[in-house]
Description:
Layout: H1 2-10, H2 39-49, H3 51-58, H4 60-68, H5 72-102, E1 105-111, E2 117-122, H6 131-142, E3 146-150, E4 156-161, H7 165-174, E5 183-188
Parallel strand pairs: 1-5
Antiparallel strand pairs: 1-2, 2-4, 3-4
Helix pairs in contact: 2-3, 3-4
Amino acid sequence: MASEAAVAESAPSEPQARQIVYCGVCTLPPEYCEFGGTAKKCKDWLEKNDAELHEKLYSEEAVAATLSTLSVDAQKRAAKDSQKKEAKAAAAEAKAAETKAQAQILIKRVERNKRKYVTAVSGLEAHGMDLKKVAKEWGKKFATGSSVTKTASGGEEVVVQGDNSDEIFDWVVDVAGVPEANVECIEDKKKKGA
């Protein structure tokens, strides 16, 4: 009996699952965030969400220890690469902000039959909105049919049954936070066939 208990204690226990933290920005483990394109955002996210791991990876001692293992040429290349990556990320962020500021949202009220209208909204994806979710939300809010359709030019637009252009304008400005200058309302009339 005593020998069986000793054997049970000396036998290796089952391996335990490891808890791995994944970055909320690039979805890589924080040790590999530097290889993604969003290293600065990842670093800020890690500092906010896991200060202990941030200290372990980005403290001055950790950076100095990592750089001391490299040769002089490799240190220079690493510094140059990090500067390039930071500049590239900043330029991409600035470009995205500029395109978002210039993007127009068009709200078109289109006459379907004599007194029936549909409201077509295009340009929402440039402001980071998921068209399917917006269409579903508007369908519930306005109690009408709402869907995402492809346009002739290859883009996508949200089509809502009924004349809801004023309510959609208010929603886009208030809820989505798009400036009024970037939202334009247009009224289209279908041409009668010959």
